Amino acid sequence: MQKHAESVFHYTIRGVPAEVDRALRAKAARSKKSLNQVMVEELTHALIGKPVRADFSDLVGKWVPDPDFDAVIAAQRVVDPDEWK
Question: Which range of residues forms the domain containing residue 73?
């Protein structure tokens, strides 16, 4: 089976010791990340030693100016002085 970089797998893990659960949940809370994200980061670090980074190289240089979009964003940035009293 050929794997692609964007392949994602799902696991169910049973029998996690209470102290490991507490440590993972505490780390997630401290870092304001989901428990799942912390677990993936910990497994990745433990097994391959470095984080797997997303590759957005296919998006580089693809921006196309859009005057309608720019107008919408500009309208959202207008501050109404009456709202700030």
Answer: 18-84
Closest among 19, 24, 58, 29 to 39, alpha carbons compared? 24
Q: Is residue 8 domain-resident?
A: no
Considering the entire predicted model, what is its pTM?
0.53
Report CA torsion sign: 19, 22, 25, 28.
Answer: negative
Q: Kindly tell me the burial class for residue 48, based on how many C-beta atoms sit within 10 Å of its own C-beta (0-12, 13-18, 19 or more).
A: exposed
Total tally of structural domains belonging to the chain: 1
Burial per residue of 6-21, b for 16 or more beta-carbon CB atoms within 10 angstroms, e otherwise: eeeeeeeeeeeeeeee
Identify which has the larger pLDDT, 83 or 10.
Answer: 10
61 falls within a domain = yes
